[in-house]
Amino acid sequence: MQHFSFNPLLDIMIAIVLSLFGSSGFWLYMQRRQERTSATTRLLLGMAHDRIVYVGKTYIHRGFLTLDEYEDFMKYLYEPYSEFGGNGLAERIVDEVKKLPVVPSSRPPAKRSKQNGQASQGE
Questions:
Q1: In 3D, which of 76, 69, 70, 73 has the Cα closest to residue 44?
Q2: Tell me, what DSSP letter sits at residue 121?
Q3: CA gap 100, 65 in Å, rounded
Q4: pLDDT tens, position by position, for the chain (123 residues)?
Q5: What is the spatial distance between Cα 86 and Cα 50, in angstroms, rounded to a whole number?
Q6: Cα separation of 50 and 47, whole Å?
Q7: Residue 82, class by beta-carbon neighbours within 10 Å (0-12 exposed, 13-18 middle, 19+ buried)?
Q8: Contact (CB, 8 A) for 112 and 118
Q9: How far apart are CA 95 and CA 68, in angstroms?
Q10: Nearest to 123 by CA among 112, 109, 107, 108
Q11: How many alpha carbons lie under 13 Å from residue 108 in its C-beta half-sphere?
Q12: How far apart are CA 97 and CA 95, in angstroms?
């Protein structure tokens, strides 16, 4: 009967890797790392929730918002918040913000020169 053997160095490496994955210390490290990530996620969700509620109530109280404000509110606050699983009061605030009229931005667009399409400075 023929015995197949790997390189002795490879045998040692496989034993080390299997021992590492089988040790309770490795899994404790992984669990702590996950808990830390979970706490960070909860903190970020809480901060996003606070901003959505505060900024959203400001828009609702004002009765309108600009297109820039709407796009920033949805893209940078609501979409990441909902991807992380946020819900509740912030969802209701966002629903109310979506119903508000969107007005043109208070900042006029940059003037363009007729020659090269670049924005002009002093016109």
A1: 76
A2: S
A3: 7
A4: 555 666 778 778 877 877 776 777 766 777 766 766 688 888 888 999 999 999 999 999 999 999 999 999 999 999 989 888 777 889 999 999 999 999 987 665 556 556 655 555 544
A5: 11
A6: 5
A7: middle
A8: yes
A9: 18
A10: 112
A11: 5
A12: 6
Residue 112: per-residue pLDDT: 58
Identity of the residue numbered 94: V
Look at residue 6 in the predicted model and tell me its pLDDT: 65
**List of long-range contacts for 11-20, beta carbons under 8 Å, 24+ apart:** none
| Nearest alpha carbon to residue 81 among 70, 91, 69, 71 | 91
Token pair of 13, please? Answer: 């490496």
CB atoms within 10 A of CB 102: 15
Q: Please state, in angstroms and rounded to a whole number, the distance separating the CA atoms of residues 53 and 26.
A: 41
CA distances to 30, 36, 94 from 57, in Å? 40, 32, 9
Spacing of C-alpha 57 from chain mean position: 22
